[in-house]
């Protein structure tokens, strides 16, 4: 892994606990600095199963261009996250720069709302398959799909394959 890589992991209440923590811890094991970024800095957010996480920064307090990758966990948090214009602009900025964007489960909602899925190949939880297709993506029922800078995955059992693909892409940057 290259040195001094930095990633943003978006956070809001009701994130899927494993889909936030597994990627964050895997990246940290690889030496990547991962910042949890939410609506407010130093705010405690609670996952669907009660695991807490505290944000490092607020959406408006970071410069997304200083980061090498972006992660969006699933759960119900994506439905909240996609309502913030700052979040959508972060996603668009990372996409314009062709930096890795990872999304799992319901997190595809954030990318759909940012309008960056047109013509892309993705996966997600089957529950939002139609949303992904309506956003212009081609949907596959696979553990992980990589299309350019976007790495997508379905659900917690797919986390090992998801993070392997995400880390491989990040290493190519």
Automatic annotation (TrEMBL):
<dbReference type="Pfam" id="PF01965">
    <property type="entry name" value="DJ-1_PfpI"/>
</dbReference>
<feature type="domain" description="DJ-1/PfpI">
    <location>
        <begin position="6"/>
        <end position="168"/>
    </location>
</feature>
<dbReference type="InterPro" id="IPR029062">
    <property type="entry name" value="Class_I_gatase-like"/>
</dbReference>
<dbReference type="InterPro" id="IPR006286">
    <property type="entry name" value="C56_PfpI-like"/>
</dbReference>
<dbReference type="InterPro" id="IPR002818">
    <property type="entry name" value="DJ-1/PfpI"/>
</dbReference>
<protein>
    <submittedName>
        <fullName>Type 1 glutamine amidotransferase</fullName>
    </submittedName>
</protein>
<keyword id="KW-0315">Glutamine amidotransferase</keyword>
<comment type="similarity">
    <text>Belongs to the peptidase C56 family.</text>
</comment>
């Amino acid at each position: 892994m290259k040195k001094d890589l930095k990633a943003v992991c978006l956070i809001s209440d009701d994130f899927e606990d494993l889909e936030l923590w597994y990627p964050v811890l895997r990246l940290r094991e690889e030496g990547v600095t991962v910042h949890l970024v939410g609506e407010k800095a130093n705010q405690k957010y609670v996952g669907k199963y009660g695991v807490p996480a505290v944000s490092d920064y607020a959406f408006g307090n970071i410069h997304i261009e200083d980061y090498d990758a972006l992660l969006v966990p699933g759960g119900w948090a994506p439905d909240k996250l996609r309502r913030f214009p700052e979040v959508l602009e972060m996603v668009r900025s990372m996409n314009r720069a062709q930096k890795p964007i990872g999304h799992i489960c319901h997190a595809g909602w954030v990318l759909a709302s940012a309008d960056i899925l047109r013509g892309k190949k993705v996966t997600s939880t089957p529950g939002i398959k139609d949303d992904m297709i309506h956003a212009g993506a081609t949907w596959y029922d696979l553990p992980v799909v990589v299309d350019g800078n976007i790495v997508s995955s379905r659900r917690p059992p797919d986390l090992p394959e998801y993070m392997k693909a995400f880390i491989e892409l990040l290493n190519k940057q």
